[in-house]
Structures are given as C-alpha cells and as structure tokens.
Amino acid sequence: MRGVLVFDVDGVLVDVTDSYRETIIRTIEHFTSRRVTRDDIQQIKNLGGYNDDWALCKKVIQDFGCHPKYQEIVDHFQRIFLGENSDGLILRERWVARDGLFEQLAKDWRLAIFTGRTRSETRLTLDRFGAQAVFDPLIGNDDVENLKPAPDGLLKICATFPGVEVVYVGDTVDDAKSAGRAGVGFIGVAPQQDSRRAELVELFRQEGARAVVDNINELEQVLK
Ligand SMILES: [Mg+2]
Hints:
single chain, alpha/beta, Rossmann fold, 6-stranded parallel β-sheet, two-stranded antiparallel sheet, globular
C-alpha cells in the first residue's frame, strides 16, 4: 500500500451543483425572497469558513437583514434536500467517478472519506451509487469535535495508519487548510465550468496543494 487517499464527498465524489448548491439557493430565497446565484455561493465558499452549508445560509440570510432562528434554517434546508418522502434534491446528485476508477486506485491506495456531512447522510449517497464498500474509514462531521478547516478527521486517519502517507482530495479552501493543519498532502478539485476557478486554483496553490484537477477521473495522472 502506497498510502491513504482520503476523499471529501460533496464536489469531489458527487457533483452537488443541482443538489446542495440548489438547496442553499432555495433556502435563502425562502427566508429573504432574494435569489442568489451559484457564483455568489462559490464566492463565499472561497472566503473559507463556510464549508457548512447551514452556516453559509445563515450568513447570507442575515446579510439580507433577516433573522430567523438557526434551527428553522436547518429544518427548511433539510426538507428541501432530503424531501418529505425521500424525494428531495439529494436525488439530483451525480456520481463523478467513471467505472473502474476506484478499483484502479485501490491497487496502490487505501481509500477513505473525511466529509462535513454526517456519516448517515454520506452512507445514503454511497449506497445509492453502489459504493458502500469502497471507503474505509469513513469520517463524518459527527465523528469529529471541530469541523473543517480543523484537521481533526485527517488526524484521526493518520493515527489509524501511523507512518503512512496520507493525501486529501477536496474542493474548497477549507479542505486545503484542513490538510495543511494535519500535515498531509492536498490535491484540489476545481471544475472547469466553475466561473471562479482561477481564484480557487490560486487559493489551493497558496495552501500548498501538490496538484489541482478538474475532477477525480484525472487523479491517476497526478498521483504517478
Ligand atoms: Mg466539498
């Protein structure tokens, strides 16, 4: 085994443009009657500190001068995302990896997950795409004391595999910071269609990313 390749989930394993990102827009619209753009959201994500989508919604809603209770924001977000009968925007997630990618990577690497989602919400998505047995360990936000950009999840993985190289694959500046604080390598994912891609790539470089890819199907080239 060459090392442990740790994946973030949203924006890395799954394309969440039409799921989480759209849920953010609808949640903000519900409380403020204002419709922000995907570009606006990416701009805030690039600031760092808003890896948590609920916290991001709260910030934007408050910036518009509205002050609902935090729990109301969370409940509304979850209703849109999960739906009333499992018919929410979560169904619009798209699996990014081509067939055989993980089998190929697993020849050299142990594959793991560190995500800001809960473990159960992550499992839901992995099950849907038939990838439940691919990643171990799986660290969710309910497994760590401090959320990203804190390094807690990565440090846990490092402690499980002492002396082994660990590389984190993430799509936000908070992911890069988390890797930096844990002292592990980082590979940034910055989709070609992202209107703020150049800004994000520069942020990744500043945080010491060893490579930046458009999507995870390019990982093998940069891991050589
Ligand atoms: Mg992400």
